[in-house]
Amino acid sequence: MERRLDLVERLDPDAVRAHAPAGLAALLVDAVDGGASVGFLAPLDAAEAASWWSGVAEEAARGVRDVWAARTPDGRLTGVVTLVRAGTDNGRHRGEIARLLVHSSARGRGLGQRLLAAAEAHAAATGLRLLVLDTQTGSPAERLYRGAGWTAAGTIPDFAADPAGALRPTTLYYKRLG
User: Whole-prediction pTM value?
Assistant: First the structure.
């Protein structure tokens, strides 16, 4: 039997708004519930998560952030990644990968790699030459980034609190494109 892969597609601002209250909010809540250090403390309320995604939709409308989502053939969102463009004149050549989330039920199928590759390809096609990101040191995401050719630039102790509120180190990564 052939295994059907989740579809990865870029979401326009209207699609981000449409998915914010349910699918995107559920991905963010699942990540925080699972211990991912993605900017929120647990427990994360679904309404707060939806509100954050509504702000992302506004950033997408302004051309500051691009969003890709993965969905099953029946339309359920299983993953998301965003690309934030630098807003300064001297940084227009770079962007940041932010909020790469794969639902706990969809992990281990290469979805994170596919989402990351989509964002990287778009970044290169639109003239970005350098990408950066940060992730909690020792997290499973580090293996994904290193496997995708990202280089660790350094670690900062006590950079961010995990969902339980404990301060954790963060490793900064970069990748040159093209």
Answer: 0.96
Token duo for residue 21:
């209250």
pLDDT at 4: 67
For a pLDDT cut of 90, what percent of the chain falls above it? 97
Residue 154: CB atoms within 10 Å: 8
The answer to whether position 42 is within a domain reads yes
Sign of the Cα pseudo-torsion (164, 158, 95, 60, in order)? positive
> Looking at the domain assignment, is residue 159 inside a domain?
no
Q: Give the model's confidence band at 152: pLDDT under 50 very low, under 70 low, under 90 confident, else very high.
A: very high
d(CA 165, CA 146): 27
Q: Are 79 and 19 in contact (CB under 8 A)?
A: no
pLDDT tens track for 43-79: 999 999 999 999 999 999 999 999 999 999 999 999 9
Please check whether residue 145 lies inside any domain of the structure: no
What is the rounded distance in angstroms from the CA atom of residue 152 to the CA atom of residue 21? 35
CATH code for the domain in which residue 61 is found? 3.40.630.30
* Structural domain for 93, as ranges: 7-129
SS3 of residue 162 by DSSP: coil
